[in-house]
Design goal:
The protein is of the alpha/beta class. The strands form three sheets. It has an eight-stranded parallel β-barrel with strand order 1-2-3-4-5-6-11-12, surrounded by six helices. A two-stranded antiparallel sheet has the order 7-10. Strands 8-9 form a two-stranded antiparallel ribbon. The protein is globular, with a radius of gyration of 20 Å. 44% of the residues are buried. The model has no long low-confidence stretch (mean pLDDT 93).
Length: 347
């Protein structure tokens, strides 16, 4: 499966009392589906997944899936501390027809998380997961930085297709691209080289829609033909996704396939403009677009975190709302700062 382009790590909306605001999941996902980004990741770190019960996680996955457009690539965050719990959520995501699963490493029993433990965990899940696996390295949250050597070994697994690398090291991004370059396989894509997933192919084979047609004499039915999905193949290999918007352009230049970033939930089009300028081989424009998002993304995502991201959503036509306790909303001073940072990046 192709992971090129920009993916937004989306938030989970809450009411003021902390309950999940399902209508706003639908609102946000529908809007993301209308932007030029490649897809969304539901229940990553930005989605406050660790704040949710298992049942709540399933409900969020279901609501986001129902709201997404067919062309939007859907990644489900299913990481848990045990392999069996992770697999159970991966199987649930598959039942909803997600396209891939995003899995952070277990980290609570940190002293015992040796290379053999991490390898065994991911191989157990990848062997059994009905969906392709995307690794997720986020040492700022887990306190564990997956070594290049372990990632390289896991990249050889046929059901592990890429990684979101959020460690902040461009050197590591480059090393990962180089060390996994021997992993090569063909994936289906559209005629303009966008992703074609197993779900999209299954929907292509589904029966055509039959709708009632009113006439003067009687009610009949008519078959509504679906647009034909024309595909070709592309060599993809193991795909490295940048996890930080302020490093996006540099990561692409180091060989990253794209980015899975929280700032794309605030300003998806602004992030996409960096990618498309780089893809069009316009370095001057790409640098200009990168500088436009660098400071806002570093401050809002890197320092203010989820409360800052959610206020940014409120400013840009999405629903942010409050974070879930123990996280607190941003202060009035921080709100003014975010408003200034996003003054040139309003959707």
């Amino acid at each position: 499966m192709l992971l090129n382009g920009i993916f937004a790590a989306i938030t989970t909306p809450f009411y003021q009392d902390g309950k999940i605001y399902f209508r706003k999941i639908e609102h946000n996902v529908d809007r993301y589906s209308r932007t030029p980004i490649s897809g969304i990741a539901v229940l990553g770190s930005t989605g406050e997944a660790v704040m949710l019960s298992d049942e709540e996680r399933r409900e969020v996955l279901r609501e986001a899936r129902n709201a997404a457009a067919n062309h939007t690539v859907l990644l489900a965050g299913v990481g848990a501390e045990s392999a069996i719990a992770t697999l159970a959520l991966a199987e649930y995501a598959a039942s909803l027809s997600y396209d891939a699963v995003l899995i952070r490493p277990p980290h609570y029993y940190k002293p015992q998380m040796k290379p053999e433990n991490i390898l065994a965990f991911y191989r157990f899940v990848a062997d059994r997961s009905p969906l392709p696996v995307v690794l997720y390295n986020a040492p700022v949250f887990t306190g564990y930085d997956m070594p290049v050597e372990i990632i390289t070994q896991l990249a050889e697994h046929p059901n592990i297709i890429g990684i979101k690398e959020s460690g902040g090291s461009l050197e590591k991004v480059e090393r990962l691209v180089q060390s996994t370059g021997h992993v090569q396989y063909e994936v289906p894509v559209t005629e303009v080289f966008t992703a074609v997933t197993a779900r999209m192919q299954a929907e292509e084979k589904a029966p055509e829609n039959v709708v009632p047609v009113e006439s003067l004499s009687a009610t009949t039915t008519a078959v509504v033909a679906k647009p034909k999905l024309k595909t070709r193949t592309k060599n993809a290999g193991f795909q490295v996704l940048c996890g930080s918007a302020h490093q996006l352009l540099n990561a692409l230049e180091k060989g990253a396939a794209g980015a899975l970033i929280a700032f794309a939930s605030v300003a998806p089009t602004a992030c996409f403009e960096v990618y498309t300028a780089w893809k069009d081989r316009d370095p001057k424009l790409a640098e200009e677009k990168q500088q436009r998002i660098a400071a806002p993304s570093q401050r809002i995502v890197g320092q203010l975190g989820i409360p800052g991201i959610k206020y940014g959503l409120d400013l840009n036509g999405y629903y942010g709302g409050p974070p879930r306790l123990p996280l607190l909303p941003v202060t009035a001073d921080a709100k003014q700062e975010i408003e200034k940072l996003l003054s040139d990046i309003r959707n």
